[in-house]
């Protein structure tokens, strides 16, 4: 699972305070943490610099016009998952993007405006990515609950009743100046109003007023992203839940009341509900599935995937996911040899012999005898 960083108790208190208000001053955070401003500022700035934490401004999903969300379940050719993730990470229309276990490799939420072509996005662009073998596309019909940070898990800065209410924004709620402010603060939600104002050539009070108006309306959201393990959460699970049609709404609303449930949506597929569950331990997951989910009237069954790595959440790219691209080799494992793709140009038409003892590859020319101890694999292209 993602995030190798281990935070000490003070680091966690700082992160929890940022969950409540990502733009809180270091003085305010120091008061909550019960330590000096200098210590909190030094620790907090280090967490932000190291990419352990990111505070970001996320516009409402409808801010650019009426749109639909599609759930993509992508299966990749073996060994290509990270390359496919890299290609998808550059797409700004991905609200969520993650590497998962289970029947598919990558889970994504694709935002498509009504006037845009879904065919172009799915067939011409996503399915054309080298390594993508299959893309199952499902339409999100209704979102019952969505949270992009950890404020609900810690009970800070959020009204639990409002957490299940989805604000519907519209392009008319924004003007060009608003969009410029959001663009400048998208990757750094703690950017000072003064620096944003200087970049735009306007007054600081203008930026502050516009930002606070948009935030108060629910047109933008301030989110604090951090890897789950860094805060002590071992289990990040995606559940595809089959529900009796007549009880879909009641089950979804019930699930949305649980603190460990971060996302609930009704989908067009036969599974009916998709749910994101984040809990501290595997034992907590067992207790939830056995004692809660399994007891809900109307639930027929479910399948589950473990989230290994989150690349995008709330349209914001996580700063830590790139570390998953270069995992250090274990000292007891010999370095891998050349890939088949490396061998193909010079071995087209040959056979590869795999040693059952060492696993080593050797080439045999066409027509040459194959040793009895080896297994023959025809090289691609012949």
TrEMBL record:
Key words of the record: DNA-binding, Transcription, Transcription regulation
Parts forming coiled coils: none
Pfam families: AsnC_trans_reg, HTH_AsnC-type
Keyword Signal on entry: no
InterPro entries the record matches: AsnC-type_HTH_dom, Dimeric_a/b-barrel, Tscrpt_reg_AsnC-like, Tscrpt_reg_AsnC/Lrp_C, WH-like_DNA-bd_sf, WH_DNA-bd_sf
GO molecular function, one term: sequence-specific DNA binding
Domain of life: Bacteria
An individual GO BP term: response to amino acid
CC terms in the record's Gene Ontology section: cytosol
HTH asnC-type domain span: 7-67
PANTHER family (UniProt xref): LEUCINE-RESPONSIVE REGULATORY PROTEIN, TRANSCRIPTIONAL REGULATOR AZLB
Protein name listed in UniProt: AsnC family transcriptional regulator
Taxonomic lineage of the native organism: Bacteria, Bacillati, Actinomycetota, Actinomycetes, Micromonosporales
